[in-house]
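Hi R.,

As promised on Friday, here is the backbone we talked about, encoded as structure tokens. Could you run it through your design pipeline when you get a chance and send me back a sequence?
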């Protein structure tokens, strides 16, 4: 799922933009939601300190000590990958906005068709995995590959576990293994682990502990190859 965060100093426009986005998501069967909205730039930064966002829609001319451009600069210092879309009624800011790796610029008043066009292009871009998303089904369900701790086989389903939620799809390991990054390694007949999310390993007991405290076993059949890959990968916290 792609998470959208929006900031506009006009609360009515903020609510309207959220509703427009939700309509676009529903109409096109996009797996996305507005996870946070605010009319205050500092609250956006506070939210991003403890949460992830895939897409940020920022009004440039905020009536506060920070403009949308200031906010984008702070965000880019912390997070390099989120899409940034600027909105403003002041056309003279357009060229300045692209300094911050801007995906698009929407003039106000925002027109539904123009917004939908932008969201369509954004999902096309994400589907090409240019930003390292895993597409798990035919409904445009996208997961940032760095957020997945492990993939678990549960009967006919695969469960993609992240720190925020689980995603499931009816599929097999074989379908996904070739598409996954090299940091995803089979460690058990029912598990593929993301090495980047491993906190600790007990080689004797064969227990993997992930960064969120969840655990899984290392299967005897996979132990030798898994530990060899881990050795070549390097250390982890």
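Update: got your reply. Pasting your designed sequence below so it's all in one thread:
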């Amino acid at each position: 799922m792609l998470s959208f965060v929006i900031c506009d100093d006009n609360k009515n426009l903020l609510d309207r933009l959220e509703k427009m986005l939700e309509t676009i998501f529903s109409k096109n069967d996009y797996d996305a939601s507005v996870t946070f909205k605010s009319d205050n730039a500092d609250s956006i930064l506070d939210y991003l300190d403890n949460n992830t966002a895939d897409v940020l829609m920022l009004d440039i001319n905020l009536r506060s000590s920070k403009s949308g451009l200031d906010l984008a600069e702070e965000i880019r210092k912390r997070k390099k990958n989120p899409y940034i879309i600027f909105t403003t009624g002041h056309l003279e800011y357009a060229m300045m906005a692209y300094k911050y790796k801007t995906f698009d610029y929407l003039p106000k008043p925002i027109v539904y068709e123009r917004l939908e066009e932008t969201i369509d292009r954004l999902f096309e871009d994400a589907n090409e995995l240019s930003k390292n998303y895993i597409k798990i089904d035919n409904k445009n369900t996208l997961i940032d590959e760095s957020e997945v701790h492990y993939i678990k086989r549960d009967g006919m389903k695969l469960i993609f576990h992240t720190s925020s939620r689980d995603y499931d799809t009816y599929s097999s390991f074989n379908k996904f293994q070739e598409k996954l990054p090299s940091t995803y390694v089979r460690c058990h007949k029912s598990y593929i682990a993301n090495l980047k999310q491993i906190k600790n390993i007990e080689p004797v007991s064969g227990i993997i502990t992930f960064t969120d405290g969840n655990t899984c076993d290392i299967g005897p059949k996979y132990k030798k190859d898994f530990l060899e890959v881990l050795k070549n990968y390097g250390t982890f916290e």
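One thing I noticed while checking it: The radius of gyration is 20 Å.

Thanks again,
M.
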